[in-house]
């Protein structure tokens, strides 16, 4: 089965192992970002046959396409790094907040223990004085 992709190039759509025309997809993984491939269209129904085939083999890509993919991959890496940096900043802020909360809790428990010790000492001291 033939069809035209977005670039106007006619592609031969293979059939997957289920016997139906494979679905054209674009990779979003870091190692193959932007590369086109065919896979089984039954992935939506958790009945995928495992069919997989690259459309644009790396060696067959022209120079312009390679540069475009490289730039897209750099952008993808930068976005991922920004996402990680934001998550680390959130974690550090939460950690700082929790450390402050822990200090307040520790101080309040310490005050309660000291207060209880003073009360016990006072009660025992009064029993000894009156006894």
TrEMBL record:
The chain crosses the membrane at residues 104-123. InterPro entries: Znf_GRF. GO terms for molecular function: zinc ion binding. It comes from the Eukaryota. Signal peptide: none annotated. PROSITE patterns: ZF_GRF (PS51999). This is GRF-type domain-containing protein. Keywords: Membrane, Metal-binding, Transmembrane, Transmembrane helix, Zinc, Zinc-finger. It holds the Pfam family Zn_ribbon_GRF. Residues 16-58 form the GRF-type domain.
